[in-house]
């Protein structure tokens, strides 16, 4: 099984790239969906969040008030890192479980992991190769056009948390330029897919063993 990490800034098109790779036969694992799963009772993420951030993050029915949690978690870089320290180990554990399930179904799978904080979380060392999607100045327009506008304070905080784009480009194996249209991006994904077809997996399951152990 070959593990590919796809990352990029908000609105730069990493999920679009993951979807294009899925159309070619890749299997996609979305870190954001794993984060949601981490808040389910089985994984105890919600309980840990309440212990740190207080009961005000819960709705009357006991479910998570995501907006309230977002307000508290983005109060400072310290609180954002607190939230990540709770969720990231659970997310990695869930990813490992899902990868193991997929491996048993198809050991030749090309698995694409859609991960916003790929390098920042240290997940890149558990992958065979990495892809960074960037869009330059087009980022702001795309975020606004799809209704993802956020307070400047939060945007500044996220920039603090994320590696500089130049550093991500240096650390990434493959770069996809999404400053043009969808057709241009699809052409780049075509080239990337041909390259990925020639890879042999080398990190599964050894790099994930600590998360596969109950």
Task: Offer a quick outline of the entry.
With 214 residues, the chain is α/β, with parallel strands linked by helices. The chain is 50% helix and 12% strand.
Beta-strand content bin: 5-15%
Give, in order, the helices and strands: EHEHHHHEEHHHEHH
Biggest sheet: strand arrangement: 2-3-1-4-5
Low-confidence stretches: none
**Sheet of most strands:** 5 strands, parallel
Backbone structural class: alpha/beta
Number of helices: 10
Give the overall shape. globular
Helix content: 40-55%
Tell me what you see in this structure.
With 214 residues, the protein is an alpha/beta fold. The chain has helices at residues 14-23, 31-37, 45-53, 66-73, 77-105, 138-145, 152-161, 165-171, 182-197, 209-212; strands at residues 2-8, 27-30, 110-114, 129-134, 174-177. The model has no long low-confidence stretch (mean pLDDT 90).
Note the main attributes of this structure.
214 residues; alpha/beta; five-stranded parallel β-sheet; globular
Per-chain topology:
Layout: E1 2-8, H1 14-23, E2 27-30, H2 31-37, H3 45-53, H4 66-73, H5 77-105, E3 110-114, E4 129-134, H6 138-145, H7 152-161, H8 165-171, E5 174-177, H9 182-197, H10 209-212
């Amino acid at each position: 099984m070959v593990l590919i990490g796809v990352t990029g800034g908000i609105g730069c098109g990493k999920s679009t790239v993951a979807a294009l790779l899925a159309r070619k036969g890749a299997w996609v694992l979305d870190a954001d969906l794993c984060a949601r799963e981490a808040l389910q009772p089985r994984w105890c993420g919600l309980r840990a969040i309440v212990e740190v951030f207080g009961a005000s993050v819960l709705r009357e029915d006991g479910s998570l008030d995501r907006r309230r949690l977002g307000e508290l978690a983005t109060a400072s870089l310290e609180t954002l890192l607190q939230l990540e320290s709770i969720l990231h180990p659970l997310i990695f554990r869930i990813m490992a479980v899902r990868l193991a399930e997929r491996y048993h179904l198809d050991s030749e799978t090309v698995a694409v992991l859609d991960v916003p904080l790929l390098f920042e979380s240290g997940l890149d060392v558990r992958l065979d190769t990495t892809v960074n999607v960037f869009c330059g100045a087009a980022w702001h327009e795309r975020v606004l056009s799809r209704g993802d506008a956020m307070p400047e304070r939060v945007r500044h905080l996220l920039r603090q948390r994320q590696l500089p784009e130049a550093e991500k480009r240096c650390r990434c194996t493959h770069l996809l330029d999404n400053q043009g249209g969808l057709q241009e991006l699809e052409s780049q994904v075509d080239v990337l897919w041909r390259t990925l077809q020639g890879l042999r997996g080398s990190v599964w399951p050894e790099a994930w063993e600590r998360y596969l152990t109950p």
